[in-house]
Structure formats: structure tokens, C-alpha cells
Amino acid sequence: MQCKAVLTDGRGKVFVDIVEIDPPQADEVLVQMRAAGVCHTDHKYMFRDIPRILGHEGAGIVVDVGPGVTHVKPGDRVLLNWATNCGECFQCQRGNHSLCESRRHPPLHRTRYKGTGIERAFFLGAMCSHTVVAKQAVNKLEVDISFPAACIVGCAVMTGYGSVVNAAKVQPGSSVVVIGAGGVGLNIIQAARVAGAARVIAVDINGHKLELAQQFGATDVVLAARNDRGLLQAAEQIKAMTAGRGADYAFEATSVPALGAAPLAMVRNAGVAVQASGIEEEITINMRLFEWDKVYINPRYGMCRPSVDVPQILDLYVQGMLKLEELVTRTYPLDDASQAIDDMLAGVNAKGVLVIA
Ligand SMILES: [Zn+2]
Ligand SMILES: [Zn+2]
């Protein structure tokens, strides 16, 4: 079938055009997409030299299923996740589902652009009127939630929540620093409150984002100076706020490579630093920042276990403990994807979401 998709040429350009997709085969699901979130990875994919359908935060309605799919049926409302684990490999057997070594997904040639197979971001390609995905990528939505709010559970919410609950395992009564109050950072903040953190300190260079941070549960805020290299001055402020010691946990959620070590500067001895924004660049680190006995975690997808975490997140949403609708501060038609990405880079939205008619 023919579908309308947001594509990148991998050389900086984003455009909308028609792609062709084949019907679902065994263990696959055809989803009519209704909403797709905009994430920093979409921007990274614009410069990876590979043409691709963008989007990996998606929600929509099941249209058709292949043989072997029993957990959803046509008409079901679903959200997508990209931890399509096999359940059998070395890592899956150890419970590390987000590190699966044998991820399931429909092959490249079954989605085509101008007759040639095309990559889909995270094997989802959610910025498209329809997509065919592995059955593991689909979670049924059984709660009352809008498609825009549901779609962001698939990446920003999961990454933030999972970094707190699965990776750092934040303890009740603890102190938490969150660097960067964007899409992932706000979810770290609200998950830290759910985990019972007594103190949640948000750090950002943008005063508007710090106001948002407070709405999502930050107890304190630090407005960092733009010229504060590695946020070392902000780290001194954090120490002053935490008995001179540093926080129990610090999370980096800025996607700014130079801040990859900043959470280390903000945690106490034997504290936990987490890099949750997918920084992959080479940077220089003063090894003293690791002193002493600190743990640095770089969790993939918040160590996502879709069958456990997604229902838990939706349950917390129903209880009013996680704000999801409020995270979506603006929606855009599919044709305005480029504008939505620009707005994300400018820090205009908590989350911008494309709504697909
Ligand atoms: Zn993402
Ligand atoms: Zn596996």
C-alpha cells in the first residue's frame, strides 16, 4: 500500500513523500499511525548519510496482523516500542531485553521509496501514515489516553522513567539532580518523585524549562550560566544544597556532548551518575570526577522491558502520578515535521508531536 511518510536524505534534509509498504507477514502488525513524537534522535538521523523514514515514538490503530500475532487484533489502539527483543538470545536470557542481540523486525525491502528498500528509524518509522512492525514492538492501549500522549511513552517517557526505576533504582528519601529539563529530563523528574525522592533539583540554562521542571515535580532549580563549562559552577551550587556532599543521583538529559561527565561532578562519593541522552561523541574527562567509588551508567532505552514497564507507566498515568498529556505542549500536522524538529532544537516544547490524520 502507499503511505505518506516523513523522510530524511541523511544529508540534512527532511521532506514528506509517498512510500510503499507490503502487508504484514508472520509475527508482524500493520498499524495506522495517529501520532508520532519528535525526538533528538530524529535530528541525528538527518546527518547519518542514510535515507530513512523518521520517527520512533508512535501510537495508532491496528489494521491487520500476520499469523502468530495474538496479543492485538484489528481495531486495537496501540503504542510502539523499539525494544523488539527475541526472548532467547544471550542478553534476553539474562533479562537485558533492551540489549537483545537478535532484534526482530520486517526486512528493509518490504518498505520502499521510489522502488528501493528504505531504512525506518528504529525499525519503526513512526512518522508515516502506516507502518508494519514486529509484534514485540506493539503494546495494546487499555487506558483512556490520547494518541499524542500515548506515543511519547514509546521513547521519552520510557527512557526517563526507566533510567530512574530500572537503571539508577532511585531510593525513597534520596536526592536527585536532573541536568536538562526537556522531553527526557521532565520524565526523569516525575519518575524520581514517583520513586519517592525527597529532593529533585533541576538544572538548565533556560528559565522557562525550569518553570516546567517545577510543574513536573522538581523541588529546587538551578539556572546554569551558558559559559559554565562542564557545569562545574552549578555542581558547586548542588553541593551547597546537599550538605557539601553532592546528590545521591545525577542524570544528564541534554544531548550536549560536553556535558557527558557533568553528572559525575554533581554526585557524592559512591553516588550514581546516569547519562540518559544518548551522547556518543568523544569528549575529554577529568578522571578526578570519578572520585570516589562513583558509578556511571549509560542505560539503553531506560533498560526497557516493554511488557512490564509500559503497563506500569500507563497505570501511573491513570493514577495521576505521571503527567503525559501535559508533556505534549504542541502538535503539528505531518507536513510540518521540519518545523517540529526546529522547535525541538530551539527548546520551545516539552514534547512536540506530529498528529497523523
Ligand atoms: Zn527517542
Ligand atoms: Zn534477544
CA-based shape: globular
Please trace the helix and strand order, writing H or E for each element.
Answer: EEEHEEEHEEEEEHHEHEHEHEHEEHEHE
CATH superfamily of the largest domain: Medium-chain alcohol dehydrogenases, catalytic domain
What ligand species are in this complex? zinc ion
Highest-level CATH class of the largest domain:
Alpha Beta
Remind me, CATH topology of the largest domain? Quinone Oxidoreductase, Chain A, domain 1
Question: Could you describe the largest sheet, including whether it forms a barrel?
Answer: 7 strands, mixed
Helix content: 10-25%
Q: Any low-confidence stretches, pLDDT <50, length ≥5?
A: none
From the N-terminal CA to the C-terminal CA, the straight-line distance is 17 Å
CATH architecture of the largest domain: Alpha-Beta Complex
Binned strand content = 25-35%
Helix segment count?
Answer: 10
Structure characterization notes:
The strands form 3 sheets. Strands 3, 5, 6, 10, 11, 18 and 19 form a 7-stranded mixed sheet that branches. A 6-stranded mixed sheet has the order 8-7-2-1-4-9, with no helix packed on it. 24% of the residues lie in helices and 27% in strands. It has 2 domains: 2-145 and 324-355, Alpha-Beta Complex (Quinone Oxidoreductase, Chain A, domain 1), CATH 3.90.180; 160-300, NAD(P)-binding Rossmann-like Domain (Rossmann fold, 3-Layer(aba) Sandwich), CATH 3.40.50. The longest helix has 13 residues, at 156-168. The chain is globular and about 60 Å long. The protein starts with a strand and ends with a strand. The protein has 10 helices and 19 strands. It is α/β, with parallel strands linked by helices. The chain has helices at 40-45, 90-93, 147-151, 156-168, 183-194, 207-215, 232-241, 262-266, 306-318, 337-345; strands at residues 2-8, 14-21, 28-37, 52-53, 58-65, 77-80, 111-113, 116-117, 119-120, 130-134, 138-140, 175-179, 199-204, 220-223, 247-252, 267-275, 295-297, 328-333, 351-355. α4 packs across α5 (183-194). One zinc ion (ZN) binds next to loops.
